[in-house]
Structure formats: structure tokens, C-alpha cells
């Protein structure tokens, strides 16, 4: 090893307490260079740990410099890709066996960044550190599209490292590890909790359940979790599910309402395991309570208000309704007749937004709709006013939607959605669309 190698490869990572940002950046980059050289596995673990330790000491500017360096320094070699492709093409056109050259082509088109991330993952606790690194990258990438290739590499590898075979479904209770309970408090963003008493309300009563996916690399940190309320009938308002009150005897419930689903690690954004969670939760609750007849959600509609306001300038009816909604200070104080007049005009617009409005790829524009419809659920009923909180009013004027999960229909609806972009609609929403 050269002088730089011997400086970094030691029995324990060096102390950087007095290093400046430039020194930490230099050591992070140098450790990555050594990792990509030919070193033994024992040294690899030590150098990878040093690289991640040095990275942890970078400020925002240092992290941005590091990501820019990795994106450019460990990109594909276009000359090698071009030459390998031409050799493969010549062999194939000549009728020769091109399998070995195709393997070389696969290796050539894979950015060296992916190998660097694999090597960094040799350090103890590295998988979670790399998830957190991607979270840093995603924050910095919002206004720096040149970093997207690196994010693609992260996503590619994390999808493999966090595949369904490694996940474990646990029911969360008040006896779960404290770190897991703290994560639920911190990462509940759909219906935030401010106190441990609120958390207990969602865990402790016999008519409440919380389930989480865990992974060996993240310990007691949940990847994604879902909160379930056992109720009679399909809920049309969120308040009764969140407010303290007498618990329902689970034996008298007929419906399991999944009212909050949260990703707990931003670094795993786009790593898709939500459908596995929902289906497994339904199976688990069904085994516990086989008498339940319905599995539904009470879901937010996060983009609806923005969509309405964007169309208010060109659509007089939408503009009039948007202006009227802007005058409402407390939706719960509306008299019944006024509320019904608004509901009659609002719900057809919500239906159009959820079912008809599409992205360029043919999928619904609402992200929550894409999630549940992609899981095989059907959009079942629109509810207004369902959530009077300021955040819900900002997102959707307080409207919410029930998606219904019917186990015998999930696979067919999922296939129809994936293959043809079909949006499954049933129940009251289907009747609303027929009458509009």
C-alpha cells in the first residue's frame, strides 16, 4: 500500500473530532478510492467504516461535493460501453456465441458507483447508514438534477437489499422496544401524534392495531407501518378513529379500517413494499378476527386542492366553489343545508380528480390513489367533510376517500391497473359517477 492507504487502513477508524470540513471530505473521497482498488476483505471493512465515519462529519456543502464527485468520478466509461457493444453486436450478427460478450456489456453499462456502494456496505451498520446517505442525497437533489443518476443507483441497490424476503411483519404493542415506539411518534405524518398518550390510544385499546415491517439491517427501526381501527361500518370521518373514547369489543366489529400508512425512512423512498404490508396485515387481522367482513381505508387526497386551484381560472364552476370554500373558517360550524350544497358540487370534482385525471404514464395523478389502486383496492366512497384539520383542508378541503380491499378481487384489479391503467370503482362512488 502507498502512503495514503496506510494513513487510512488502521485497526480502528481514526478520530476526526478536530478535522475541518475539507479534511473530512478529502478522507471520505480517499477512502472510496482505496475501496475501489484491490484490497482484502478485512481491510475493506475497515476502510468502508472510515469512509462512512468521515462522511458523517460532512456538512451540507461537503455532502453535496461528495455526491457530485461520486456521480462523475464513478460513472460508466462511454468508450468501453461503445467498444463492448460493437463486439457483442458483431458476434451476434455473425451467428457466433455472444453470451460472454453480453456479460461484459452488462458489466460495462453498470456505473462504478454501484460497486462503490456495495463496498461501502461491508462496514458494520452500513446498510442503515447508506439509507440515511440517500436521504441526504434526496434533499440535495431537489434542485440539482445532475445527481439523479446517483439516486438511481441507490434505488437499484436498496430495492434488492430490502426485498420482501428480508422483511418481517410485527404487531407493535406498548411492550415493543422503546426505539420502535419513538419511531412511530416521529414518523407518523398522516395523522401526527404529539404525545405518548396519543400513541397509547392507537396501540392499547383492544379495537386498535399497529403493524410494521422490520428488516435485519435496521434493527428496531420500522420501514413502514400501518394503523388499524376495528369498527362497525365503513368510517366516513377521521375524528372518531383518533379521539379517545370507549373501546369497541373486537368481537362486535365488522370492519377493519386502515386509516394511516407511513414510510418511516425517507432514504427508502420508491422502494416499494407497501402492497406486501397491506395484504399481509389483512391476512394477519383476518386470522385474529375471522368474523370481519370488510377491509377498507380512510385515506387522504393530498393533491386535490392544488388541482382545483389550478383549474379555477379556466372553469367558472370550479372557481366559484374554490372562492366559497376559501370563506369557510370552521367546516364543522356549517349548517346542514349549506354543507350539503357544497358536498353536491365538491364530490363530483373529487371523483374526476381521483378517477379520470391521469399523468403522462396513464396512472392517476393522486399518489395515494396510485398506491391503493396499484395494490388491487377499489375506490369505494368519497367523504366530506371528513377531516377538518388545517393540513387536510390545505390538501383537499377536508375530503377523504375509502378504498376497499376485497381479497378475492385484489389480483385481478391489480393486473387491470398495471396492464391497462384501469381504475377500479365500486359502491357509492360508482353510483355518484353514474349520476353525474
Automatic annotation (TrEMBL):
<keyword id="KW-0456">Lyase</keyword>
<dbReference type="GO" id="GO:0006633">
    <property type="term" value="P:fatty acid biosynthetic process"/>
</dbReference>
<dbReference type="Pfam" id="PF17408">
    <property type="entry name" value="MCD_N"/>
</dbReference>
<dbReference type="GO" id="GO:0050080">
    <property type="term" value="F:malonyl-CoA decarboxylase activity"/>
</dbReference>
<feature type="domain" description="Malonyl-CoA decarboxylase N-terminal">
    <location>
        <begin position="74"/>
        <end position="162"/>
    </location>
</feature>
<protein>
    <submittedName>
        <fullName>Malonyl-CoA decarboxylase</fullName>
        <ecNumber>4.1.1.9</ecNumber>
    </submittedName>
</protein>
<dbReference type="InterPro" id="IPR038351">
    <property type="entry name" value="MCD_N_sf"/>
</dbReference>
<dbReference type="InterPro" id="IPR038917">
    <property type="entry name" value="Malonyl_CoA_deC"/>
</dbReference>
<dbReference type="InterPro" id="IPR042303">
    <property type="entry name" value="Malonyl_CoA_deC_C_sf"/>
</dbReference>
<feature type="domain" description="Malonyl-CoA decarboxylase C-terminal">
    <location>
        <begin position="165"/>
        <end position="406"/>
    </location>
</feature>
<dbReference type="Pfam" id="PF05292">
    <property type="entry name" value="MCD"/>
</dbReference>
<dbReference type="InterPro" id="IPR007956">
    <property type="entry name" value="Malonyl_CoA_deC_C"/>
</dbReference>
<dbReference type="InterPro" id="IPR035372">
    <property type="entry name" value="MCD_N"/>
</dbReference>
Amino acid at each position: 500500500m502507498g502512503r495514503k492507504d496506510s494513513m487510512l487502513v488502521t485497526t480502528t477508524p481514526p478520530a476526526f473530532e478536530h478535522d475541518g470540513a475539507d479534511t473530512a471530505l478529502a478522507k471520505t473521497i480517499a477512502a472510496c478510492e482505496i475501496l475501489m482498488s484491490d484490497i482484502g476483505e478485512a481491510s475493506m471493512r475497515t476502510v468502508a467504516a472510515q469512509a462512512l465515519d468521515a462522511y458523517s462529519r460532512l456538512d451540507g456543502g461537503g455532502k453535496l461535493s461528495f455526491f457530485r464527485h461520486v456521480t462523475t468520478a464513478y460513472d460508466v466509461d462511454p468508450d468501453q460501453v461503445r467498444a463492448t457493444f460493437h463486439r457483442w453486436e458483431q458476434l451476434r450478427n455473425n451467428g457466433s456465441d455472444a453470451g460472454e460478450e453480453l456479460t461484459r456489456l452488462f458489466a460495462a453499462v453498470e456505473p462504478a458507483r454501484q460497486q462503490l456502494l456495495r463496498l461501502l456496505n461491508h462496514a458494520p451498520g452500513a446498510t442503515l447508514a447508506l439509507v440515511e446517505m440517500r436521504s441526504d442525497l434526496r434533499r440535495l437533489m431537489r434542485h440539482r438534477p445532475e445527481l439523479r443518476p446517483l439516486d438511481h443507483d441507490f434505488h437499484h441497490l436498496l430495492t434488492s437489499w430490502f426485498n420482501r424476503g428480508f422483511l418481517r411483519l410485527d404487531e407493535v404493542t406498548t411492550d415493543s422496544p422503546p426505539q420502535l415506539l419513538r419511531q412511530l411518534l416521529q414518523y407518523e405524518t398522516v395523522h401526527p401524534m404529539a404525545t405518548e398518550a396519543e400513541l397509547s390510544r392507537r396501540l392499547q385499546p383492544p379495537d386498535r392495531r399497529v403493524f410494521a415491517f422490520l428488516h435485519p439491517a435496521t434493527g428496531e427501526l420500522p420501514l413502514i407501518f400501518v394503523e388499524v381501527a376495528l369498527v362497525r361500518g365503513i368510517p366516513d370521518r377521521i375524528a372518531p378513529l383518533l379521539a379517545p373514547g370507549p373501546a369497541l369489543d373486537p368481537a362486535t366489529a365488522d370492519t377493519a379500517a386502515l386509516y394511516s400508512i407511513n414510510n418511516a425512512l425517507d432514504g427508502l423512498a420508491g422502494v416499494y413494499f407497501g402492497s406486501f404490508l397491506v395484504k399481509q396485515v389483512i391476512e394477519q387481522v383476518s386470522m385474529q378476527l375471522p368474523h370481519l367482513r370488510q377491509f377498507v381505508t380512510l385515506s387522504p387526497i393530498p393533491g386535490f386542492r392544488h388541482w382545483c386551484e389550478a383549474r379555477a381560472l379556466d372553469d367558472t364552476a370550479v372557481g366559484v366553489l374554490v372562492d366559497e370554500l376559501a370563506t369557510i373558517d370552521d367546516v364543522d360550524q356549517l349548517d346542514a343545508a349549506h354543507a350539503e350544497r357544497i358536498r353536491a358540487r365538491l364530490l363530483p370534482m373529487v371523483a374526476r380528480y381521483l378517477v379520470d385525471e391521469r399523468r403522462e404514464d396513464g396512472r392517476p395523478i393522486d399518489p395515494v390513489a396510485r398506491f391503493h389502486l396499484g395494490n388491487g383496492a377499489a375506490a369505494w366512497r368519497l367523504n366530506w367533510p371528513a377531516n377538518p384539520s388545517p393540513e387536510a383542508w390545505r390538501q383537499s378541503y377536508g375530503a377523504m376517500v375509502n378504498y376497499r380491499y376485497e381479497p378475492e378481487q385484489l389480483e385481478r384489479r391489480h393486473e387491470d391497473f398495471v396492464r391497462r391503467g384501469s381504475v377500479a370503482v365500486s359502491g357509492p362512488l360508482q353510483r355518484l359517477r353514474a349520476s353525474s
